[in-house]
Recover the amino acids of this structure.
């Protein structure tokens, strides 16, 4: 089990490049199952979740090559339309193969995703949407066993703009018979990336990125070459790292239109931000001002940056309130954080953050992917040494996190 050892107090300075988006590429890999011929995906981040998804595809019989320089080749020769428990339990996002397998093979056996550290992560909206398109889904021995005589296009209104449900239904609809309309669809940039990938394969999708997506089913899709969009959450993590260490960092690949609320909130707290078409620079040379942040589905402030902005505001002048409106339990990291001298109190969905002037290094434990990244940011800003253990959580979604931070001047090393 690796640990990060961080000597805090060093302002981060310089340029860092965002890797490909984790929450886009996992879906493109699943979408490749819909194709009759191989796909090439470039700008694929070398992170734990991608390797897990490679295992899921290989388990099904697909041929996957993922070489050193971020390029992936997938030949979707599926012989087993299944996703096993030991892989799904490592990565809940594996459930995203349900829609493509049903659409392409008329059946799917996918382990029920287990619990998770940030909430119950229900998938009722996925199942309801697929059933409304003609899928029959049973629960047997911890597995979803799904089958269909052929999916039919229909109107699918989502109770909540769920990212995963929008993606599963979108991928089921592209080969369904007739037209599907997803109402109250998720609008995240990763949905747009998936729709662009599918349209390049020959799908007919209109309106991705808006609340209503129209899909005309087609008979078959072909393999394509495609480059994944940059990871806006990794980019936002580095922008906040720059602000919390009173440094100045340019993130290459950061796209303003993917980070509007993050940029406006950092500005409101006092940071200076300059935006170019493919990079964003943040600098802050004084103590941040307290602000309030409401986490909401895109284009609202992203839940995946809630821990990071909370840590940043723990050093602000005054009292901030951060409200988590997407997950029901995404403050697990706060108990660890308070061991570093912060004063954060959780009241239901709100974090009440009484700003302190200094953080102190301490041994802490990563609780989940983004909470763990937030604790690293706290260590970078703290006085003294911080040891973050259970960093496998962080390695799920951040490629070369230590190396990228070192390049910006952080004093960070890994011990086993
Ligand atoms: C995706 O998860 C991301 N993961 C998450 O990123 C991200 O936090 C989330 O979208 C929201 O942006 C991937 O893309 C792999 P949801 P997903 O379905 O699809 C409830 C990270 O750190 N819900 O939009 O699971 C659910 O319980 C990860 O990279 C239902 O009730 O998110 C949750 O409270 C963490 N029923 C809320 O909606 C459903 O059928 C948001 O879930 C589906 C979801």
């Amino acid at each position: 089990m690796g640990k990060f050892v961080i000597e805090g107090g060093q302002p981060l300075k310089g340029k860092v490049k965002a890797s490909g988006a984790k929450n886009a590429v996992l879906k493109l890999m699943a979408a490749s199952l819909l194709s009759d011929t191989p796909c090439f995906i470039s700008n694929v981040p070398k992170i734990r979740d991608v390797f897990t998804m490679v295992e899921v595809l290989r388990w099904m019989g697909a041929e996957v090559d993922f070489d050193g320089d971020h390029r992936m080749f997938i030949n979707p020769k599926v012989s087993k339309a299944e996703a096993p428990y030991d892989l799904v339990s490592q990565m809940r996002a594996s459930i995203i193969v349900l829609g493509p397998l049903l659409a392409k093979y008329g059946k799917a056996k996918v382990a029920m995703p287990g619990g998770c550290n940030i909430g119950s992560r229900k998938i009722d909206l996925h199942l309801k949407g697929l059933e409304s398109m003609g899928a029959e889904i049973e629960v047997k021995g911890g597995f979803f066993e799904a089958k269909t005589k052929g999916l039919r296009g229909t109107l699918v209104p989502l109770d909540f703009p769920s990212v995963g449900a929008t993606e599963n239904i979108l991928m089921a609809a592209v080969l369904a018979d007739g037209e599907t309309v997803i109402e109250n669809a998720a609008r995240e940039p990763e949905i747009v990336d998936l729709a662009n990938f599918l349209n390049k394969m020959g799908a007919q999708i209109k309106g991705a990125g808006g609340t209503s997506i129209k899909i005309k089913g087609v008979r078959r899709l072909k393999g394509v070459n495609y480059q994944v969009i940059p990871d806006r959450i990794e980019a936002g993590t580095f922008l906040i790292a720059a602000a919390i260490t009173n440094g100045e960092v340019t993130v290459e690949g950061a796209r303003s239109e993917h980070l509007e609320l993050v940029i406006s909130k950092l500005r409101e707290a006092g940071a200076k931000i300059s935006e170019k078409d493919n990079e964003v620079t943040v600098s802050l040379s004084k103590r941040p001002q307290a602000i309030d942040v409401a986490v909401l589905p895109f284009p609202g402030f992203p839940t995946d940056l809630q821990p990071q902005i909370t840590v940043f505001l723990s050093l602000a002048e005054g009292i901030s309130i951060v409200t988590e409106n997407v997950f029901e339990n995404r403050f697990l990291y706060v108990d660890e954080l308070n061991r570093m001298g912060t004063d954060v109190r959780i009241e239901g969905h709100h974090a009440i953050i009484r700003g302190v002037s200094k953080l102190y290094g301490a041994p802490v434990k990563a609780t989940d992917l983004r909470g763990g990244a937030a604790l690293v940011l706290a260590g970078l800003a703290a006085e003294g040494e911080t040891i973050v253990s259970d960093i496998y959580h962080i390695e799920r979604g951040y490629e070369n996190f230590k190396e990228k931070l070192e390049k910006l001047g952080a004093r960070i090393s890994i011990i086993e």
The mean pLDDT is 96.
